[in-house]
């Protein structure tokens, strides 16, 4: 409403200025003005001529009447001549007097109007301002000549005319203003322009200012009073209770409930327990900001509960603040909770439209000792496969060993049940080539076991199931078109979810606690049927995927990881054979050693290295290996190696347990796990990428994410 009034006020000045400009043009152009007035005053003379002709015709019919009529004709002609020759100057003078009076009215109107009004040149220097604008300066004790000193939100691009008309919101002191900036032309012979500026410029900026302080304050009050909905889940409720004596379990539950209730109540919210391990709460937007500033301290507070339980409790919080109705907020809260759980729990996720914020997530995902979920997912996948005749499995771009191993596992399942199966794989790192060669060179495997994206699109039909493994972000997949074109999509991954997810998946199995995608596929193989027996090549591929992602079973490993490895070993996986596949050539070893030798120690605990890709077969793998080796240096909390390759800069981040590199890489557009993560940076130099990485480290340390 206010912006409309501002525009209306601006349009009024535009119309008024146009009318006055037209009037001045008539006054200043004497020839045109005299011509117009002369044409207007000639009409009585023309009419007098017609009257004279009529008088002659009347004389032919009746001379007596014509003589009588001639007296009136002479009077009429005399009046017409007098009007033309004597009244013309007086009429012109009256028009000039009217224009001058109107011009003075306009000046007084502009100067005395309640809305501040300013005229500036293209550089932003104030040419003229009215009384209301000068009162703003006086109230703020300002004496300025440039408009940006008053309204800093006015940019140089706006002054340069890159925007035809601009509507700007700016604050001066404790007042808020809405400014409409308009471009206009002033003629060189414009009297008004000449009176305002010494040397009239043809193009100036006109600013109409409206005080919107009351609207801003009311909007803020409304925003702060809006209610947001949230969910709180206890991630490991059952597992934690099993570690406590039965008589003390009720006490543990009561302590957790008290922590949650006290925290929400301290933020002026209302919380209600809906299930034994689930809570629903409502809070105002203003108090939610306090939670954000507090960085959801309840996440760490709950972990301090210890009454003999061997396992610390962790929470997941999902909050929706779409700004619509309560149903929409509730759906957003559930979506946020799905993201929190999909990322391993122990964190808060805030969903505000398309904007998603993450808090916490510092601990490792808790491994589930039960395999019920794996068995359920395996049977669900078997039912989907039975209804289709074709399976296409793909991983992420630049496929790694784990990506290949998981794909081979799915290919085996489809092949055993008589379905046509294909693996979509384009470019990959060199570590994959010897494993892939075992299948492409063997007569036991079809020629089209591996296909490219275009061929996959040709094979895709309504009787096809698409499996996405080792990735859950559609833009990172080998062929994103398959996801949009297929109705039956299955997702299996061990990376934490981000705001970019595959929305049309009919079956999703994302477990961040798992060491690798190959581990998850190995479990599915055990439950999907008793008649599946892997060949040594297939077992080697999956085992190699687990070895790479766990760094020889030293990272992100649990009981189920070793059980999956044992299953693959029983199916013919050979540890020595796999180890030989991963031996480095001399150039790769030298590149890794050079990256370690020239690494920079930043803020005493971060090792930042650069891997030179020249002469290496797989630069990104070498960079990851260098990052792993840098962790062996004492006092290093995290190691990040940057590798420039194919026009991008690949970041490999590693840590042991003190730094969550997954959160660090997410700030750079990547992701991963707490101790193993990565990112890709484009359109910047290596030095710029280093500075950006250091800025993220500084930000995390300042916010307390890194101690």
Keywords:
six-stranded mixed β-sheet, 23 strands, alpha/beta, elongated, single chain, 707 residues, six-stranded parallel β-sheet
What's this model, at a glance?
The protein is α/β, with parallel strands linked by helices and 707 residues long.
Shape: elongated
Strand-residue proportion: 15-25%
Mean pLDDT, all residues: 81
- How is the largest sheet built, in terms of strand order? 7-8-6-9-10-11
The count of β-strands is: 23
List the helices and strands and how they pair.
Blueprint: H1 2-28, H2 30-61, H3 63-85, H4 87-112, E1 117-120, E2 126-129, H5 131-139, H6 147-150, H7 156-159, E3 166-172, E4 175-185, H8 191-196, E5 203-211, H9 213-225, E6 227-234, H10 237-242, H11 249-266, E7 270-275, E8 278-284, H12 285-294, H13 298-303, E9 315-320, H14 326-342, E10 347-352, E11 355-360, H15 372-386, E12 390-394, H16 401-416, E13 420-424, H17 433-440, E14 450-451, H18 453-459, E15 464-469, H19 480-485, E16 489-493, E17 505-510, H20 517-528, H21 536-550, H22 559-570, H23 575-581, H24 586-597, E18 600-602, E19 606-610, H25 619-630, E20 638-645, E21 648-655, H26 661-666, E22 671-672, E23 676-682, H27 686-702
Parallel strand pairs: 9-10, 12-13, 12-15, 13-14, 15-16, 16-17, 19-20
Antiparallel strand pairs: 1-2, 1-5, 3-4, 4-5, 6-8, 6-9, 7-8, 10-11, 18-19, 20-21, 21-23, 22-23
Helix pairs in contact: 1-4, 2-3, 15-20, 16-20, 16-21, 20-21, 20-22, 21-22, 21-23, 24-25
